């Protein structure tokens, strides 16, 4: 690709050469923009994955410090039942909260594709891990629904 860019060389007819170098520059810029988009997307996915993992680590650390997994599970139950969408939160700060402050439906789904785009694991899954129970059983208990 760099062979198309000429900054020196023979003098002579320049017809056609300007068009080639302009096309090469545009192709290079398009390739850079494409790579930037791909890496930006991958960076966002890695941020979301770290955020979800960090929630489980925070729960484990909380249990380690308090020695009371049931207390933490009950606190998460209260958060799940009584929380509502926060007006002060946005996408950039959502990963800093205990539960998703934006109440996006993607955070309650458990499929592989939807979990790629969520900032938090579902609270019922966190409670199930803390209590060593079946997640579907906890989901039914908290939300009163069956999957």
Descriptive keywords:
147 residues, mainly alpha, 5 helices, 59% helix, 0% strand, elongated
Q: Please report the distance between the alpha carbons of the first and last residues.
A: 54 Å
Please count the beta strands (DSSP E, at least 2 residues each): 0
Secondary-structure element order, N to C:
HHHHH
Q: Would you tell me the structural class of the helices and strands?
A: mainly alpha
Radius of gyration, CA atoms, in whole angstroms: 25 Å
The biggest sheet, with number of strands, parallel, antiparallel or mixed sense and barrel status, is:
none
Q: Which of globular, elongated, flat, extended, rod-shaped describes the shape? A: elongated
Short description:
This protein has 147 residues and is mainly alpha-helical. It has helices at 17-66, 69-82, 112-116, 123-131, 135-143.
How does the SSE layout of this entry go?
Elements: H1 17-66, H2 69-82, H3 112-116, H4 123-131, H5 135-143
Helix pairs in contact: 2-4, 4-5
């Amino acid at each position: 690709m760099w062979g198309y860019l000429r900054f020196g060389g023979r003098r002579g007819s320049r017809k056609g050469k300007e068009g080639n170098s302009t096309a090469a520059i545009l192709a290079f810029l398009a390739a850079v923009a494409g790579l930037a988009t791909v890496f930006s997307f991958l960076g966002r996915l890695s941020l979301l994955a770290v955020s979800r993992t960090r929630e489980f680590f925070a729960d484990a650390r909380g249990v380690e410090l308090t020695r009371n997994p049931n207390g933490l599970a009950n606190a998460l139950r209260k958060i799940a039942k009584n929380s509502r969408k926060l007006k002060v939160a946005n996408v950039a700060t959502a990963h800093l909260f205990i539960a998703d402050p934006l109440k996006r439906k993607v955070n309650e789904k458990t499929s592989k594709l939807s979990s790629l785009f969520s900032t938090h694991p579902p609270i019922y899954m966190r409670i199930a891990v803390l209590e060593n129970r079946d997640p579907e059983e906890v989901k039914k208990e908290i939300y009163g629904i069956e999957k």
